[in-house]
Amino acid sequence: MKEQSAPVRLWTTDFILLMLCNFLLFLQLHMIVSPLPSYVQDRFHANAFQVSLFTCLFALSAIVARLFSAKALEKGFRNAMIYIGLSVALLATLGYYFAAGIAVLLLLRMVFGVGFGLSSTAFPTMASDIVPVKRMGEGMGYFGLSTSLAMSMGPIIGVTLLQGAGFVTLMLSTAGVIAVIYPLSYSLTRKKVAKKKTPQAISMQPSHQEQATRDVASVSGAKPGSKEKAPFNRKLILPSVLNGLLSITYGGLVGFIVLYGKEAHLANPALFFLFNALAVLIVRPFAGRIYDSKGPKALLIPGAICIALGLVTLSWATTMPILFVAAFIYGIGYGSMQSSIQTWMIQVVAPAQRGMANGMFLNTLDFGIATGALLLGAIASLTSYTEMYRYSVLFMALFLLIYLIQGKRSGSFQIETHPLLSHTHITATDSAASHDTNDVQVAPDKRN
């Protein structure tokens, strides 16, 4: 008779708190990212290239900071990264009040980027550590929803505050959101960061442990039992490149949607992000389950097509209803693709390297947004914002080309899960025979 252990739960208190903290962290970021170009242009009479620098330099400083935060997470300095990062971001935000010129404001954005980069890696890494392996796509899909919603709601709130109450109110509101994260994260950070045991030690019999060790050695290139540092996992390269291309298109939205609205005479272009958020809310729960059952191909190809259609529709938007349609189509694509790429990157590395994988995901996200702001800003200065959005479709065409060529070259679009994960949480169906003969106790993957 099979023994049953405690159900594998997804919606734990810690998971919900992590989602909330991550949501607020990205919300305060995007409350200022979208309205800032309009503010800089109106106050300092900046051109499109100068405006793009505010997004670009912020993103690059966040990337540099994450190079250190990922290593710090592996060494157990999680709490320090969270609180130092939040404090730096808070002080930089309050410093906007004293910025009397473009140079000072740019410097403060770079300082803010360092703070954001240090803190933003911790929450998704903590989430990926507590999500059940067999529900990784679903769990990280829900967690990624906190990022996507923040990226969609933040610009609406920020633009509304800037237009209705002014930049100082926007700055103080953003600082207030950062301050709220401190008490919410306390119950998460007070728990001791324990050294991770490999999943085999908990859920596998000795023969499986030995096999997993050999598999890890073959993947990493390190000798079994040695303390040699594993080399960079090359399986992260493809999803990182794809994430960067996807993020370039989003960089054009957060950086220039308000300025495009002025050019196209749209009443409230920031509402684009509201309908984008609605689409993300609808598609994300289904996307996670599709990923778990069919893999990334079922989401990335149709998602890229939706992104391209959304951008083309946006470039022809002369009325608010057309803008809403464009936002909804774009949101369906973005909502299904972003979490799929993040889950993909988490699944191909060992549990101890999730901080590094999440860091790469966020770095390529920021790098793509920075590149999009810089490159598309240059295109807009030479042509128009309408033409800029049409040119941005080319990045989705390149996305599909790279993904299809790589899939055909490898002979499969299925990802290879890291051995430490493929040996864990064995389902009852897959291991029924071995359970009877080898006394392996298997917990059913009961959903909550």
Automatic annotation (TrEMBL):
It is a multi-pass membrane protein. It comes from the Bacteria. GO terms for molecular function: transmembrane transporter activity. Residues 14-410 form the Major facilitator superfamily (MFS) profile domain. Keywords: Membrane, Transmembrane, Transmembrane helix, Transport. It comes from Paenibacillus polysaccharolyticus. SUPFAM superfamilies: MFS general substrate transporter (SSF103473). One of its GO terms (cellular component) is plasma membrane. It is found in: Cell membrane. The chain crosses the membrane at residues 12-33, 48-68, 80-100, 106-127, 139-161, 167-188, 236-260, 266-286, 298-316, 322-341, 361-382, 388-405. Residues 200-210 have a biased composition (Polar residues). Residues 199-229 are annotated as: Disordered. Its main location: membrane. PROSITE patterns: MFS. Pfam families: MFS_1. This is Predicted arabinose efflux permease, MFS family. CDD domains: MFS_YfcJ_like (cd17489).
